[in-house]
Structure to design on (386 residues):
């Protein structure tokens, strides 16, 4: 019996942990063959290469696509996408997958969608139908129109995909696969199971975490990339004035990342930051353990909207990156303002953990998606439904 070949393209560090349970379910399915392609910033060490974690977890990488152009600006992002189309087309031609799976809405994922669509390969999209603003909004809905199957993470997202003219027979609310990992952490997490300093190194002070800590993860916003340094400086000033240990994670490779990174480095040179330690990357499950035991998450990462909602972790969400995204009751929205950030952190630390939410599913998305990938008819043509 020939197995159906499923090519999954991972283009960024967070995307791996987001679909790890999907990869596992495909790999373990008797009628599916996993073809794993790692591309773009997921291969770059300075953004926390995902390759070591992927191989450690027992996955075989079938192809690597080095396509990130230096610059961390809008031109570099556009050219990175163009190189991705060229390289991924060759990879797909060699691997000859039956279905290509693309994840979420980062700009590099557009290359996956275009290559698969132009080559008449059925395309499955995970996490379509959501709302955020900035370039992710355009990329996400464009991929929806190119995709043949839609594995969305919430009921609101399902409704939006159908309103975009997609056939409801091929739109499935599986929940978000990242919640699968959050469920594992929540079910088996009484204490933090590792020492982050010993396991991951990093740089900066090593404050005592025994009385609680906060986690910071802030990325540049592509439509506001010129202001990325100013944005990160407001957060740095706020964290430096809050007397709580902070574990800070490096930003994604987006337009404006150089402003975010240089802002962090410059601030570190002129301030002692006795309560802050910086990490480049962390295994997905370990990161969720870290969040689960934290007082709150600060920044603009979607992990605050998704996994933290399920875990019941408070979030101070800064700026517009997660604009209008479906959310639980764990999020407080603030502007790029030092005082707003400080006040919000102090308030939610006092309030304690909110009630968990299942707005993004209950923890079985990976298995659902694998089952659908095996059963769905192979199709690469469609007609708009409205």
């Amino acid at each position: 019996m020939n197995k159906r070949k499923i090519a999954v393209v991972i283009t960024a560090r967070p995307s791996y942990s987001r679909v790890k349970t999907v990869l596992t379910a495909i790999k373990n399915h008797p009628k599916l063959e996993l073809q794993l392609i790692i591309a773009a910033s997921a291969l770059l060490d300075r953004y926390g290469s995902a390759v070591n974690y992927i191989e450690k977890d027992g996955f075989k990488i079938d192809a690597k696509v080095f396509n990130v152009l230096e610059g961390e600006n809008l031109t570099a992002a556009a050219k990175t996408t163009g190189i991705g189309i060229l390289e991924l087309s060759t990879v797909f031609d060699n691997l000859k997958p039956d279905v290509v799976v693309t994840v979420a809405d980062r700009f590099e994922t557009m290359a996956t969608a275009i290559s698969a669509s132009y080559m008449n390969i059925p395309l499955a999209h995970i996490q379509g139908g959501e709302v955020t603003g900035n370039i992710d909004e355009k990329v996400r809905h464009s991929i929806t129109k190119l995709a043949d199957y839609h594995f969305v993470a919430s009921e609101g997202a399902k409704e939006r995909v159908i309103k975009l003219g997609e056939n409801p027979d091929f739109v499935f609310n599986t929940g978000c696969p990242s919640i699968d990992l959050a469920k594992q952490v929540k079910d088996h997490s009484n204490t933090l199971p590792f020492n982050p300093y010993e396991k991951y190194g990093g740089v900066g002070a090593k404050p005592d975490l025994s009385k609680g800590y906060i986690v910071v993860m802030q990325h540049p916003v592509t439509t506001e990339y010129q202001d990325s340094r100013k944005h990160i400086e407001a957060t740095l000033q706020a964290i430096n004035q809050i007397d709580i240990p902070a574990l800070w994670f490096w930003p994604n490779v987006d337009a404006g990342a150089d402003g975010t990174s240089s802002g962090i480095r410059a601030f570190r040179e002129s301030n002692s930051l006795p309560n802050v330690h910086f990490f480049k990357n962390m295994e997905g499950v370990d990161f969720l353990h870290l969040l689960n035991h934290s007082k709150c998450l600060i920044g603009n990462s979607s992990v605050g909207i998704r996994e933290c909602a399920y875990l019941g972790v408070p979030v101070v969400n800064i700026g517009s990156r997660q604009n209008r995204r479906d959310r639980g009751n764990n999020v407080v929205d603030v502007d790029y303002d030092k005082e707003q950030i400080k006040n919000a952190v102090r308030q939610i630390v006092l309030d304690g953990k909110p009630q968990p939410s299942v707005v993004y599913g209950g923890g079985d998305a990976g298995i659902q998606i694998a089952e659908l990938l095996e059963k769905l008819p192979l199709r690469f043509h469609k007609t708009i439904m409205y």
Summary: The mean pLDDT is 93. The CA atoms of residues 10 and 16 lie 6 Å apart.
